From TrEMBL:
Gene Ontology MF term list: tryptophan-tRNA ligase activity
UniProt lineage: Bacteria, Pseudomonadati, Pseudomonadota, Alphaproteobacteria, Rhodobacterales
Protein's recorded name: Tryptophanyl-tRNA synthetase
GO BP term, example: chromosome segregation
Family matches, as SUPFAM superfamilies: KorB DNA-binding domain-like, ParB/Sulfiredoxin
SMART domains linked to this entry: ParB
Family: Belongs to the ParB family.
Length: 309
């Protein structure tokens, strides 16, 4: 004989005026964590209450309902609503969406409070990165996204950068095959093919440190602190069509110049221009380092000496 399947009955939902709600002593959350109550209040003010409060009727000593409802699950949301009421941005009679548990339920209030917090699954960082991309693609600026989620525009830029890593590597990260620090290192070079090549080399190696990833991704580039780059100037290099690599997650000493051939050409052109300028003044060039009167000439093995008249 087939056993009858027991039907599940969900607790009803209803709007309850704010002034009829009280925080339950059965709420298991005691330690503050995550988003502050002030930030949560601002989020509720902006987008409304996204999740109903879980409440139970408060009973009098004789077992009758008092008209009040206690909140064992949703205490931080209630505190945020309380702050909005205190700021007079919500009225005391504002209806609040609630799920109402039966007062005589076999499920304890502490059980509800614990379950709500323990069964919550945190969003994977990659999902957050991709969500920021979706918001930007729909027209929101970095500043608008930052304001909506109480982070700085720099953090938004970093998360958008993480989402731009090669899709194959994002999947590795999603499956816990790569750390967040390693993923950060891959953002230093936007070339997806090169990112994958580097991962293919190091993923089975003993040295998978982020600094090694950065080193490999920038090994054909020139540091902005290199004397050639300093001599020419990054602005002049970029004006000539040169591109830069930058690290958004740690100091990069000005970044890397991605086109060494262009840089060398600019160095040669600038040296030639300086040589022509001093020639007009009656100077001549020499290879003798011992007589170099200028730092620029010394740096490149070229010297200027006074022409004997």
């Amino acid at each position: 004989m087939t056993k009858a399947v027991q039907k599940i009955i969900l607790s009803p939902s209803r709007d309850i005026p704010f002034d009829k709600l009280v925080l339950s002593q059965s709420n298991v959350r005691r330690i503050k964590a995550g988003v502050s109550v002030e930030e949560l209040a601002e989020d509720i003010a902006r987008r409304g209450l996204l999740q109903s409060l879980s409440v139970r009727p408060v009973l009098a000593d004789d077992g009758t309902e008092t008209g009040k409802f206690e909140i064992p699950a949703g205490g931080r949301r209630f505190q945020a609503l309380s702050l909005l009421v205190k700021q007079k941005r919500l009225t005391k009679t504002t209806p609040i969406p609630c799920i109402v548990r039966d007062a005589v339920s076999d499920i304890l209030a502490e059980d509800d409070s614990l379950a709500e917090n323990m069964q919550r699954v945190a969003l994977h960082p990659l999902d957050q990165f991709r969500a920021f991309v979706a918001l930007r693609d729909k027209g929101q600026s970095d500043a608008e996204i930052a304001a909506a989620f109480f982070v700085t525009p720099q953090i938004v830029k970093q998360r958008l950068k993480l989402a731009s890593v090669a899709p194959a590597l994002l999947e590795v990260y999603a499956e816990d095959g790569m750390t967040l620090e390693q993923l950060m290192a891959f953002t230093v070079n936007p070339d997806h093919a090169r990112q994958v090549q580097v991962w293919d080399v190091i993923h089975s190696s003993w040295n998978k440190e982020p600094f090694q990833i950065r080193r490999m991704l920038t090994e054909t580039s020139v540091r902005a602190s290199d004397r050639r780059a300093v001599f020419v100037g990054v602005e002049a290099y970029e004006a000539a069509g040169g591109t830069m690599l930058h690290d958004l997650f740690q100091g990069d000493d000005g970044g890397w110049l991605e086109d060494p051939a262009l840089l060398d050409r600019l160095v040669t052109e600038k040296l030639q221009a300086e040589a022509e300028a001093v020639a007009v003044e009656g100077w001549k060039w020499s290879r003798s380092r011992s007589t170099c009167p200028t730092a620029t000439a010394t740096a490149f093995g070229l010297c200027r000496v006074i022409r004997h008249r």
